[in-house]
Amino acid sequence: MILAARDIAIVQGGARLLSGVSLDLRGGEMLGLIGPNGAGKTTLLRALCGLAPLAAGAVTYDGQPLADLGAAARGRSVAYLAQDGRIHWPLPVEEVVALGRLPHGAARIDAAVLRALEAADLLGLRSRAAGTLSGGERARVLLARALAVEAPLLLADEPVAALDPSHQLQMMEALRAAARGGAAVVVVLHDLTLAARFCDRLLLLKAGRAIAEGRPAEVLTAGRVLDAYGVTVESGVRDGELYVIPWRRREPGA
C-alpha cells in the first residue's frame, strides 16, 4: 500500500474542513477526488502530502508515517501539483520542468524531463520563456514538472481546469500512464466524465465528509450526484466507457 489515510480531520480557524476521511491507494491506481466546491478536496490533497496539519487521524506512505519522512525523502516520494497555475521563475520551459529533478540531486535536462515534456505536449515549447505562455500552456508545464519527479505518489489538484478539450484528454492520458507505470495517482476533478473514464476509483466528498467511494459506476449514480451537487445527470456508455453529463439544477424546494 503506497498511501493510507485513516480518519483524517482538518480544523482551520475554528472551522472543521474534513471529518473522518479515510482512503487506501496502491501503486498502479488512479483515484479521483470529486465533490462540489468547498467539499474539502484540496484540503484533503494537502493533508496527503503533509501541507495541512491534522487535527486527528494519520497518513502513512509505504507503511511509514508521512510526518517521519525527511524533506529530501518526501521530495522524491511525493509529487504535488497545486491548482494556482503560477510560475515564478524567468526560465525556459525545459528548465522549469527540470526543477522536478531537484529531489534527485540536480535540475538537469535528463531522460525523465524529456519524457515529461513529451507527455505534456511541450517539446515544441521547450525553449520558450515560461512567462510568455498562456494559462493553459503554463498548466501543462507545471504538470510536466510534477511528472518529471517520477515519484511513487503523484497528487494533482485540478490539472485540466485551464486546458482545451484536446489537452484535457492528453493530460488525463498522461496521468493514467503514470499510474499504469506503477505510480499511485490522486487527482482532483470537476469533470465527471473525465473522472468516470480515467480513474480506477472515485472518492466523493461533501461538506468535508466522504459520502461514497468505489468504482466510477458505483459512485456516479443519479441519486448520489443529485445529493452532492444538486444537479440531475444524463449518463450512458460509449465505447465501453461511462459518461456523466450534468443536466439540470435541482428545482428550489425539491
UniProtKB/TrEMBL annotation:
Pfam families: ABC_tran (PF00005). SUPFAM superfamilies: P-loop containing nucleoside triphosphate hydrolases (SSF52540). The keyword Transport applies. The keyword Translocase applies. PROSITE patterns: ABC_TRANSPORTER_1, ABC_TRANSPORTER_2. Part of the ABC transporter complex HmuTUV involved in hemin import. Responsible for energy coupling to the transport system. This is Iron complex transport system ATP-binding protein.
